[in-house]
Specification:
The chain has 467 residues and is α+β, with helices and mostly antiparallel strands. Helix content is 53%, strand content 19%. The protein has a five-stranded antiparallel sheet with strand order 4-3-7-6-5, sandwiched between helices. About 1% of the residues have low confidence.
Length: 467
């Protein structure tokens, strides 16, 4: 039974959405940190430029540095966010020459700035500050001492710029996701087009159209298309075999029915009781043969149209062989033959199968041997245990068949080239169906003493399975 579990489009969309979402989270995180770094670079460059501008304004009077902060430095630090700006100029002893905020510059900071420019983040009265410090050699007329210049501002502008840059990145990302979604839908439609074409071609087919597919498919669909072609081929072969079987069965049934009609018509035209009796004998024999033919046809239909093997059980092959041989040896049809068993293994030999089907198999083999061998022939049943299989065989010392005919004996209505017997030609066909139903193997060959030997190889149950 077919159960629908979503659609290929939805599955592809879910997987693509999950992939895009995972990548999107990474891209958005990268966009945020990139925006943050860009804002830091922009504002750090302002601090650095302001520090250089202040450094150029350092003057020396009476051996002491004097600084008049130029307006250009403050303009550099000014932003539209009205940030608080800090600056300080320190002499060689760490004393403030000029400044606008009582933020203490720690000795460790001064030591680090004496070797190279440094950047610091610090909290002052609950507000985060970004500081830049560097030391410059400033020469006067009487002395040449270094001065340190520190500038800084609050983080509001940086955070605002980061948000603006990130918003732009998010906007571009959303537009790209929407565009990618549209392109994804178009791509899925184009990618699934061969599947739609194949579906439409199959829907347009007639019920009895079993010809190979005539369509172009991508590599991913090649195996499915080849599987469908293989299925159509098997269905076509099965349909042709069914038609041949039906035609042959009709012919086989028509012949005895025509004989019955002819015999009964002749008997009705005669006034002799002896003629009537002879006609009844012929009608009885023909009816018996027709009944057996119908029974075999029903067996063929039952075996061919059964969906799966059912009611399988662990069966002792030796007991089944004993029971079947004893049953057939007591029948009238076997009184002119010698039915016996070969030397059998001492312990039970088990196979998995359907009891009724295996009895039908052995019965058809014995019946064939009785019908196609002359009176007085010896029919032997036996079992041989191999490493992986258990062999059941039946052989006779009759006339046998030619090698050309032997390969076709399992075909329906094949009588080994013999037209002088009352067989229907269905016995080995039924045996072949039962063998395939049990995943076994049949081999037909000439016996050592002449005649025919039919060997059946069944999967051998292990000791654990037998136990």
């Amino acid at each position: 039974m077919i159960e629908v579990e979503g659609t290929l489009k939805s599955r592809l969309a879910i997987w693509l959405l999950a992939t895009v979402s995972a990548l999107g989270v990474l891209l958005l995180a990268e966009a945020y940190f990139s925006s943050q770094r860009a804002a830091e670079r922009a504002y750090d460059s302002q601090l650095e430029a302001a520090a250089l501008t202040i450094a150029e304004a350092v003057q020396w009077e009476a051996g002491q540095p004097v600084v008049e902060i130029p307006s250009a430095a403050l303009q550099i630090l000014a932003t539209r966010h009205q940030e608080r700006v800090f600056y300080a100029v320190l002499d060689a002893d760490g004393q403030t020459v000029s400044g606008n905020l009582d933020l203490d510059i720690a000795p460790e900071w001064r030591r680090r700035a004496s070797s190279q420019p440094i950047w610091l983040n610090d909290a002052y009265h609950g507000t985060q500050w970004r500081l830049y410090g560097r030391e410059l050699d400033s020469a006067g007329w009487e002395t040449q001492d270094p001065v340190q210049i520190w500038v800084g501002h609050t983080m509001t502008g940086r955070e605002s710029l980061t948000e603006v840059l990130f918003e732009h990145a998010v906007t571009r990302f959303v537009i790209m996701v929407l565009l990618a979604g549209v392109l994804m839908l178009l791509a899925m439609r184009v990618a699934l087009a061969p599947l739609r074409r194949l579906r439409q071609q199959l829907r347009r087919r007639d019920a009895d159209d079993m010809q190979p597919l005539d369509t172009r498919v991508p590599e991913e669909m090649r195996e499915m298309a080849e599987t469908l072609d293989s299925l159509f081929t098997r269905q076509r072969q099965g349909r042709e075999a069914l038609l041949r079987f039906t035609a042959d069965a009709s012919h086989q049934l028509k012949t005895p029915l025509a004989g019955l009609q002819t015999t009964s018509e002749l008997a009705l035209k005669s006034d002799s009781p002896d003629a009537w009796r002879q006609a009844l004998v012929e009608v009885h024999g023909s009816a018996e043969r027709t009944s057996r033919l119908a029974s075999q046809l029903l067996s063929m239909a039952r075996l061919r149209h059964a969906v799966e093997a059912n009611a399988t059980a662990r069966i002792d092959a030796l007991a089944l062989l004993h029971e079947t041989a004893f049953d057939w040896a007591q029948r009238d049809a076997a009184q002119a033959h010698d039915i016996g068993l070969a030397s059998l293994p001492a312990s039970p030999q088990y196979i998995q199968g359907e009891a009724w089907a295996l009895r039908e198999l052995l019965g058809n083999l014995i019946d064939n041997a009785l019908r196609y061998t002359p009176p007085g022939s010896v029919i032997t049943l036996g079992v041989v245990s191999h490493a992986q299989t258990l062999e059941l065989y039946i052989e006779d010392d009759g006339p046998g068949v030619s090698p050309e005919v032997m390969a076709h004996l399992h075909h329906p209505f094949e009588r080994g080239g013999r037209q002088d017997t009352e067989g229907s030609g269905l016995g080995l066909a039924i045996v072949d169906s039962i063998v395939r139903r049990h995943e076994a193997r049949m081999q037909v060959e000439s016996a050592e003493k002449g005649g025919l030997r039919v060997r059946l190889f069944f999967p051998y149950l292990t000791q654990h399975e037998q136990g």
